[in-house]
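Async update (no meeting this week)

Hi team, since we skipped the sync, here's where things stand on the single-chain job. The sequence we agreed to prioritize is pasted below, unchanged from the tracker. I ran it this morning and attached the output directly underneath so nobody has to dig for it. Comments welcome in thread, and please keep replies under the output.
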Amino acid sequence: MSYIKFLGTAGARFVMIKQLRASGGMWFSFGSTNFLVDPGPGCLVRAVKSRPKLDPAKIDFIFLSHKHLDHSCDVNLMIEAMTNGGFTKRGGVFAPRDAFEQDPVIFKYILRYPQKIESIAEGNTYSVNDISIKIPVRLHHSVETYGFKISWKGFVAAYLPDTGFFEGLAQSYAGSDILIINTVMFEPREGVGHLSLPEAENIIKAVKPQKAILTHFGMQMLKNRIWERGNEISDRTGTEVVIASDGMLLDIDGVYTNSSSKI
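Output:
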């Protein structure tokens, strides 16, 4: 079974600080490859207490979209877990350069534990096992931030993390079978480096994935009961839209099968 497990869906500082939603990031399992994305506060606990239980020692790589604490707080802990406390040199870490070099969130002593360390950059492509990781574009956020398009056996799963909306953003994520969008705000706010629900809907309409998942919710999204709005958003976009919940497991085998049949 290939799947995406949502270890937390909190977005913005107050939802995280109050733990109105968990903030553990996402765990992807594609075939025999496991990778962790944006391990925020509580990631390790959410993983080992998950059902089914997730074993951090089986992580093949960790992807950090940017260094803000709601995305990176547990990154050192998860690197230690991935490498058996540093005794087994294995796995990889993919993160923006400023996560390592400028006011780093990844400790220097930790850097010798993984087998591979990559500073990600716009337009680059990286490989782990049978997975290809493409960085579509540098995003518009207050620190260096990148999402990904991961290709596996002809299937493309994309992650669009924190960013303000800008021209060409949707086109950068074209060709995605699954598109995960961090949607912090219910309504647009000028000058804020986060996507709103109307902007996320416009991106979904342009990209036309088989399935879109909204996650990383701010306070206004919770106050407007976003979890009740999946059907109306699906109707407006013409795409199946899933509102992520803490602990949700998304089985992607069906989506992968449909994707493969197009190739």
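Quick observations from my side:
The CA atoms of residues 96 and 120 lie 5 Å apart.
The chain is about 25% helix and 25% strand.
Reply here if anything looks off.
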